[in-house]
Design brief:
It is a single chain. By secondary structure, the protein is an alpha+beta fold. Helices cover about 35% and strands about 20% of the residues. The longest helix is centred in the first third of the chain and has 49 residues.
Amino acid sequence: MQGKPSGFSSTRTLLFVICLCLACALVLSVLAERLKTPQKHAKELYRSKQLLLAAQILDYNGYFLVDGTPTTQATDQEILQTFETRVLTRLTNDQGQVLTFEDAGIDETTYLLDHAKIGYAQLPYKLIYLIKQSSPSFLPYGYVIPVNGYGLWDAIYGYLGIAANGNTVLGMTWYEQKETPGLGGEIALPEWQEQFQGKEIFQKNPDGTTNFARAPLGIEVVKTTVKETFGTSPRSDSAVDGIAGASITVTG
């Protein structure tokens, strides 16, 4: 009995594989397109929540804060609405002027995309978020600035909330990091981030006074604990406990 040419089976197999690959590619393409909007929405929601956490409008359990007291749990829609109504995206320069993107002659979308990875602190016009009061007022409730640095494995990104006095920390969040779980990754834990609340950015003199013109700036992360390192001295007001085994991460 004469068999079929060997090329017949090979050709059909090849065509089947090609058709299968094309079908899979089509399905993946459709899914990717369909998921674009939900992914964009999820990212927007996550970043909005992190910024509101830094501003102490939300607590780490997702409850709205009123005078520091948790009230009602926020829905996703309420988080986005609160961000829309209470957060103003602005620019500031070395002279301390606060400008809209339009006043600075800068396209907001391009600016945010171009500098998202490297950060905004070294730019002539730096990104800042003004947090409005919950009731009508000309004075801001506070400010949130994006912060970034380098951990052990990659860049880390977060938000630092500052009270209207420009000195007291409202809150701190790290929303993107790839540090080692159980070590550097603990910077994302609420227990560590909550230490920043109430800390002062301008470091005090030994007598407890603050020379705002000359005071060193920043919150120091000590190797052990603030109590062991500074006790009850004024320096403790500008320091937080370190994380064991994560000195590179917390320094970054």
